[in-house]
Amino acid sequence: MLRGLAAAWGVYTAGLAVLLAQLLRRCRGGFRAPVLPPQPGRVAVVTGGAEGLGLSTARQLARLGMTVVIAGINEDKAQAAVRKIREETANDRVEFLYCDLASLASIRQFVENFKKKKIPLHVLINNAGVMLAPRSPTADGFERHLGVNFLGHFALTSLLLDALSGAPGRCARVVTVASATHYVASLDPDDLQGSRGYSAHGAYASSKMALVLFTYRLQRLMRVRGLRATASAADPGVVDTDLYRHVCWPVRLAKRLCGRLLFKTPDEGAWTSVYAAASPELEGRGGLYLRDEEAARSLPATYDLELQERLWAESCRLTGVPDVAATVLSEAIPDVNSDLRVTLGGCQQPGNAPTWPPRPQQPPPATKPRPQHGCHAPGNRSFEIKPRLQYGFHAPSNRP
Ligand SMILES: NC(=O)c1ccc[n+]([C@@H]2O[C@H](COP(=O)([O-])OP(=O)(O)OC[C@H]3O[C@@H](n4cnc5c(N)ncnc54)[C@H](OP(=O)(O)O)[C@@H]3O)[C@@H](O)[C@H]2O)c1
Description:
Elements: H1 2-27, E1 43-47, H2 52-63, E2 67-72, H3 75-89, E3 94-98, H4 104-116, E4 123-126, H5 144-160, E5 172-177, H6 200-224, E6 229-235, H7 249-262, H8 266-278, E7 289-291, E8 294-296, H9 305-319, H10 324-330
Parallel strand pairs: 1-2, 1-4, 2-3, 4-5, 5-6, 6-7
Antiparallel strand pairs: 7-8
Helix pairs in contact: 1-6, 2-3, 2-8, 4-5, 5-6, 5-9, 6-9
Bound molecules: NADP nicotinamide-adenine-dinucleotide phosphate.
């Protein structure tokens, strides 16, 4: 009970802090759409692309000329979205493919169907999600937030890894939609299902923290394997969508009354994902936590390499996905920076993009970092993040 209240308090405090930051930003001129070059020839999969942030993301990628596959569960809604996007963008290369992230069998079927198309995959947007969903397990018996938000995307990404392909001079990109609620989350890889005390608020926040941990390890894995691909997390802010359908009525009422002023529109919220997926400035850069189209710090615990490793191993066990990271990364230099520019796979920065200087690598730590939440391994980050408004959930002094 107390645990649940604390988790709810954390989630609403995080949301309020973001709303205040958004209000301040609006007073200072508001949000601006990233200016991106057309990208015909690129193929993107957007999970949950039939509504909310996913729909806006799919529409914006289609407008850039990409082929877009909307992966989702509600065929009628998704087909309507496909028609709408085609009309609005004059891009016919938008389609729907069924994928229920609450079922590993459905995810495998989706991957099989996608691969049958024999088209490359350049952008994967792990966007779909549920929040405060009524307590009901997924088809595989996972707690729903864990199963849909995290394990579903973990399995989907892992199974699509070999389909992800960069073009000459271009990396493929995995963009995972995170949330500021991860700043108030905690995560125990040995009890992902929350059997030692469940709260829906806590489960949602933990699933988002898991996605950030996963993103950083995925980035390291892809870099060490020499894949021409990068992985980053995109935090959309607080956005006026149906995600809030299960929150308590006072919050729904407040959203209805102040939504326009305080919340981002779905288009504004999607800009961070679209920027992460398509910006030339980010070519070859991964392992980033992006908020309002800028790199920011995530919760210090998300940089903990051992926590990343334990979560990955447990996720493999639960989903039956082979743990390729265990071998690949155990043979790698322990403090290989996760977000160094990718060069092994041949992705290069386009000539007109700004130079991005990585810091020199630091010597490997003498001992493995301890699995302590709240601290992170030295040397895991490699670039200077612009000072920016922090939401106040982590101390800037924790930076490596
Ligand atoms: N809105 C915010 O303020 C906010 C803030 C931070 C992070 N986010 C994140 O942004 C992402 C998008 O959320 P949203 O705000 O756009 O919410 P939304 O409007 O409720 O959209 C969620 C999408 O996820 C899909 N989905 C749900 N369960 C699924 C399943 N089992 N398999 C496949 N797809 C499934 C839904 O499909 P159906 O429509 O077919 O059910 C829907 O398209 C989520 O990951 C959310 O956590 C949102």
